[in-house]
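WARN retry 2 of 3 for item q-0093 after timeout on previous attempt; input resubmitted unchanged.
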Amino acid sequence: MKHPKTHAHAAGEARPEGVASEADALTAKVDATVEPSARIAELEVELLKLRDERLRAEADLQNARRRAARESDEAERRGETRAFGAFLTLIDDLERARAAVPAGDAGGPLLAGVALVLSRAMDELARLGISAIDPHGEPFDPHAHEALLSAASESHPAGAVSQVIARGYRHGERLLRPARVVVSTGPAEGQGS
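OK item q-0093 returned
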């Protein structure tokens, strides 16, 4: 008949009933020599430390979730901006094609087709919550306009947008593309008031 082992067992190996490991015996011996009130105080300190670690881990997890959500939203915005940018370029091309039609062909089928496609594209933008920025005559705003040129203008005061080269677009409050404009420098010299 085999005798139960008296030395420490490997992790995961079951101990024979009634046999304590050396570590359990040592812990029991130390616990017997420590005053109960001191042991309680020690355990309370350990409990506070573990609670603090748990709270910190929860805060770290919440921060990681917020950061991941923010990064995901930002990636989605960048993707939308890239896709909308390509669509807006096509709209610019359609507008230039419509403007390039000679005055005598104003009622031609080509112009009507371009106008129809442009109208549908603008309707789709509106459905997606995208609005055009057409700042003609408004004061120049560097947050919404991109000044390509500045030129004298008899009909616009200095600092106003005298010509819109390409409309800008917003998606809600977010600027997708600034309006590309010519900014007036006021009336030409010798002709102002």
